[in-house]
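Posting for a labmate who doesn't have an account.
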Amino acid sequence: MLDTLRRRLFCIAICVLMLSVTLLLAVSLQSSVAVQREAEVTYLQRMSFLLSSQLEKTIDDAPQLLADYAREMNVSCLLTADDGTILYESSTIDMSALARDAAQSIGTTPLTNGQPASTQSGIVNITQNGQRYELAQATIVSGDGAQYSLLLAQEAPALWSLIVPALPRALLCWCAALVLI
């Protein structure tokens, strides 16, 4: 009778311990996913800032510059003049529709000393046709005072693609905890 009780208590202790290890690994996976998502957002914001800084200096090189970024960095770009004329679009997605969807979330151009200033918006998440996109918008004021709008979009990574890199380490830790018990 005492042996049966001891075995049952031992099994319960193992279950509680493995549940604790599982919860710790779940928190670790969630943290890993959050860090990867933040890295994607930071990447897009930095790219938007760099592009707007380069375009402020010379807007004439915009098509070549944006084409290089679109190809090398795997983003979609839309550059429009203040009157709505599309100056450059590199995309397999409908950037104009994304811009319309995000219009309510993205602010307007602020004034600095009564003059328009170049600005950066935060990242806006839009879902279109079942695909999630992260958008960054910059309002660019060139040296001659003309205003342009730059919209960068990239497909947001799927949750599973963020979990997969951390999953082998988590499974190894879980199995090691089970073997050590």
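Reply:
Got it, the structure tokens are right above this. Confidence is low (pLDDT under 50) at residues 107-115.
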